[in-house]
Design goal:
heterodimer; A: alpha/beta; 6-stranded parallel beta sheet; B: alpha/beta; 6-stranded mixed beta sheet; 12 strands; 38% helix
Chain lengths: 244, 246
Amino acid sequence: MTAAPTRRLEEWRYSDIAAVERAWPVAPEAITVAAGECATRMVVQDAAPGSATIRQFDIIVAAGASLAFHIINSGGAYGRVGLDVTLHEGARFDLGGVIVAMGEQVLEIVTTVRHIGPGATSRQVVRCVAGGTATATYLGKVAVARAGQQTDAAQSFKALLLDRGATANAKPELEIFADDVKCAHGATVGELDRNALFYLESRGIPPVQARALLTRAFLSDALAGIADDEARDTAEARVTELLA
Amino acid sequence: MLKIDNLHAEIDGKTILNGLTLNVGAGEVHAIMGPNGAGKSTLSYVLAGRAGYEVTAGSVTFDGQDLLALAPHERAAAGVFLGLQYPVEIPGVSNLMFLRSALNAQRTLRGEAEASGAEFMKLAKAAAADLGLPYEMLKRSVNQGFSGGEKKRNEMVQMAVLQPKLAVLDETDSGLDIDALRVVSDGINRMRSPDRATLLITHYQRLLDYVVPDFVHVLVAGRIVRTGGPELAHTLERDGYVSIAA
């Protein structure tokens, strides 16, 4: 990699640039899933308070292969997990991403998913919680090449803002050169459901615990796709701890 | 057990309860009937402490303590249960986890020991069986994908596990077919005991054929305009609310 990026670049416009410079240069990690194989990966970004971390993954999912990738992004003053995923014919990529940003943290998940062969599927589910004056960002680009007919791509982003000063950014981006594709995306930013809060409290659950329960439930969408029960329980427990 | 005196309450500056007085003794079942907009649901929310309902005058005493001074979860721990007209769906929180958290939070607040996993399972299984709700459904998210009748059964399951002293049941009968009504009524009747009380809030007399109340009150425009025995419900069913209010 060359010089550190600037805010002028679209994919860095919400970043903490001073922190990015501290973390630069970044050595991407390469992951290749061979044809017909299934792989899983869990990335936990829980760097020490005040630190700046950028983790970049360059991923190739070969024909008929699948990768389930999960991220829990919660550490440091600045934390970014970037994925550049190339999907060959009939490949499948599932992303479940969680961001828990508190205080003044700036945490990001930035993905580019390239459907370069026909019939590949991508599913991205990202759930963020932001409190204090923190910023949580998801930038998700899906690029479908001319050969990417019958692409089935979906992105779902939801953010929960716990405090007035918190920010969530979501930007799905589609670049499509094939004509027979399905590319769905949805993004919502909201607050905790008051009816649900009252319901929990009316049954005896104190407000702080009720909020934590609802927040955890909100995030669990992004972890539901972890097939291994033990791994999912570990991830859920980690998230619960973050919200305690 | 419950003493409501000259209660006035408003929502968004609009007066809904307008001098409501009601005494409910231990062991009694009271039915509150009234037309739409009379303040029935408001009464239930005020008793449970929902935000946005402002009490402007009057008092509510429960077991000798000022109920209005307590937060919603403290009221629950004190023994108040509100069966909601429209139970809320909570994706991602299982019924079991919800109910166990609730039971243990109440016990903790009362200074009692928490229920063990085994004790809780036994309670939940028994309650689900009594109310004809498959136990498997309790493993699913709270009320998510439940039919109207299943949601109401689920409210009764919660009540059976939490064992409140005072159950305020807001239109628990609405949306129930005859079979479900019978099951839910049985659930309410099972809870009747000399040291518990029930406030049934309902539009229709139908529920009161199954859960026979000790008293029937007619609520119109935020106050109780008439009180009688179970026969009053039949009079209302025959003549409507208009004749009473006049």
